[in-house]
Structure formats: structure tokens, C-alpha cells
Amino acid sequence: MKKLLQDRVIVQTGDITSIEVDAIVNAANSSLMGGGGVDGAIHRRGGKAILQECKEIRQHQYPEGLPTGKAVITNAGKLPSSHIIHTVGPVWHGGNQDEEQQLEAAYTNSLSVASETGLKTVAFPAISTGVYGFPKSKAATIAYQTIKQFLNSHSLPREVYLVFFSSDDEQVFLETLQTYNLE
Ligand code: ADP
């Protein structure tokens, strides 16, 4: 575990579905109907109430699905957190299809939803670095710089947790910050 940015960013390894914060972010797909990875874990442990609210969002707000880079908020069902912010990260196609800007948008829009909802604590998984194949080191740079920029101009959320699923992933993240002198 490591704290950065005057303790407003907390880097740790763990299962994001076990974390007790105002909102955990879901690396969803545009259907909002669940999937594999962290998305599957959230819906499995959170129960039907989350999917129900996702269906309503699809019906009323995003009939074609949630576009890449956008974010919406729902209840968190049976999870220990209070809300879920669902965002869609980009699928990595080699880097020439706006993937970096889309990943940045996924972080910024998730943070904006948290801020507008008045949330103090938010936890992110490493969006797009699983099935969607975004290179972990590149994703680390984008995640950290985007969060840093947002926190510099907003008092909410007060704290952002970056939750890695393995200590290897946490190491890659921390080493990337060191390599590029981003801390
Ligand atoms: P994407 O489709 O956006 O790549 P994935 O869920 O496949 O989403 O992976 C995103 C990241 O979340 C990966 O680094 C994966 O190891 C991690 N992950 C998977 N399950 C969990 C979990 N329960 N808690 C935290 N991170 C998780």
C-alpha cells in the first residue's frame, strides 16, 4: 500500500468488491448487462438490484448502450460500498484508435460523476487492462495523470483508491510512476 498526492491517492492490492467506499468503479462493457472480470465479480456479489438499475439506464438514457469513455452511477446492491460508477474503457487496438483519450475520458467522467454526487471516497480497478488488453504501463500513466489533474481542481472526491488485483500489477503501476517521474 502506498499513498500519493498528499494522501489523496491510495494504491493497494485487493478485490475491489470487498472495499467499503462511497463508490467503486466498474470496468463495464457498453451493454451494462454484466460480463467477465471485475464486471462479473461486481454483479455476482452485488446481486440483482444493480442489474435492475442498469436496465433502467439502458431503457431511458442509453438505449444503444453506454458509449466508451462515459460513466453512469447506480446503487451497489449487497456490496459494502454505497454506489457503483459504471464506465466503459476502450478495447486496445494498437493505440491508433483514440484509445488513450478514451481511457482518460473514462477516468475523468467517473470522477465527475463522483464529484457531482458529492462522494468523498472512490475506488478504481485498472480499467481496460484485463480482457480489453490495454498495456498496463501505459494505462498506469494515463490513470495517474488524469486523476492528479482532476484532484488538483476539485475537492471531491477527497480520496481515490487504486485497487490492483495482484501485487505484480500494483508493482507495475508504482514502477511506471517512478520511471516517468510522475509522483
Ligand atoms: P476490461 O475489460 O476493462 O479490461 P477486466 O475486468 O477484464 O476489464 O480487467 C480490468 C482489471 O481489473 C484487470 O487488471 C483485472 O485483473 C482487474 N480485476 C478483475 N477482477 C477484479 C476484482 N475483483 N477486483 C479488482 N480488480 C479486478
Brief synopsis:
The protein is an alpha/beta fold and 183 residues long. The chain has 5 helices and 7 strands. 40% of the residues lie in helices and 19% in strands.
Task: Write up this protein.
By secondary structure, this protein is of the alpha/beta class. The protein has a single domain, classed as Leucine Aminopeptidase, subunit E, domain 1 (3-Layer(aba) Sandwich). Helix content is 40%, strand content 19%. It contains five helices and seven strands. It has helices at 37-46, 48-60, 99-117, 136-153, 167-179; strands at residues 2-4, 9-13, 23-28, 71-75, 83-88, 121-124, 159-164. It has a seven-stranded mixed beta sheet, with helices on both faces. Helix 4 (136-153) links the parallel strand 6 and strand 7 (159-164). Helix 3 packs parallel to helix 4 (136-153). The chain is globular, with a radius of gyration of 15 Å. 41% of the residues are buried. The mean pLDDT is 98. Bound molecules: adenosine-5'-diphosphate (ADP). Adenosine-5'-diphosphate (ADP) is lined by residues 15-17, 27, 37-39, 41, 89, 125-132, 163, 165, 169. The site of adenosine-5'-diphosphate (ADP) has 20 residues, from helix 1.
